[in-house]
Amino acid sequence: MSRPPRPTIPVISAYRVKRAAVRNRYTAQYACPFDECGLTLKSSEEEIGETEHCPYCGTVFRLDRQPLALQRKRDEDDKEAGRERRLQAKQERNQQKRASEEIRQNARRQRDEQKNADRERRARELEASKRETEHPKNKEEGSPHPVRKRVIQVGTVLLLILFYFSFGFFVVQPIGAIPDGVTIFYFRLGTNLPFVGSPDGLLIDKDLPVSLLGRGVVLAAISKRIAERRIVNLPYLKPLYLWSTGWREFDR
Ligand SMILES: [Zn+2]
């Protein structure tokens, strides 16, 4: 069995591939392979690769599919590249958006922080000025205010004066009736007795001789008055006794 001889027909490999603007369709444009004809011919996409003939001279030929496939491949690559470019651009835009959003957020955060700091500072200043108003000249912490110090001094003096005129000490030195002696702290105002008094001291004040009898007389005369005004009994205090006598001591 022998194969029948295959008729050889010209194959056109060089043709212009045109792409229609719509629908992604391709057409081929070429010249008739018969040199004497040379008519410009067109084939649709479906006709490429099929056996054709020139309608003018009748020459049979075939268009190679390769140029169409290459063109299609190039276009698809371009399309893919375009998609990639657009995707990349979109990603870049998103990145920029995120970056600018971050910048805005940072700025806002800084503004808020600054605002808070300002508020706290104002509160501190207000607090400080309040303290300043309460104690205008009290700059150093802990040091008593001069005016306040003065008030305390004057108050202390007034209290001492009040104490001096209101209260008194009456010292009874040890005698037979009171062997250990006693110092009576009492309310003195209106008694006409000295701040620190004693029987001996009163005798001296009246230019009377200090004697046991004299002491007894003085005690009898004033003991009731002092007892009524007594606040507290203290132990015998010799310094106070000496104060009352003008620093003189008398035998018993
Ligand atoms: Zn032809």
The amount of helix comes to: 40-55%
Strand order of the largest sheet: 9-7-8-10
Average of per-residue pLDDT values: 89
Distance between the termini: 178 Å
Number of helices in the DSSP assignment: 5
Round the Cα radius of gyration to an integer and report it. Answer: 65 Å
List low-pLDDT spans: none
For the sheet with most strands, the description reads: 4 strands, mixed
Shape: rod-shaped
Oligomer: single chain
What hetero molecules are bound to the protein chains? zinc ion
Percentage of residues in strands = 15-25%
Q: What are the secondary-structure elements, in order, as H or E?
A: EEEEEEHHEEEHHEH
Secondary-structure-based class equals: alpha+beta
Describe the protein:
- The protein is α+β, with helices and mostly antiparallel strands and 252 residues long.
- Helices cover 48% and strands 17% of the residues.
- The protein is built from five helices and ten strands; from the N terminus they run ββββββααβββααβα.
- It has helices at 66-134, 146-166, 199-205, 212-229, 238-244, and strands at 11-12, 16-19, 26-31, 40-44, 51-53, 60-63, 167-172, 182-187, 196-197, 230-234.
- The strands form three sheets. The chain has a four-stranded mixed sheet with strand order 9-7-8-10. It has a three-stranded mixed sheet with strand order 1-6-5, with no helix packed on it.
- The termini are far apart.
- Zinc ion is lined by residues 32, 34, 37, 39, 54, 56-57, 59.
- Zinc ion binds at residues 32, 34, 37, 39, 54, 56-57, 59.
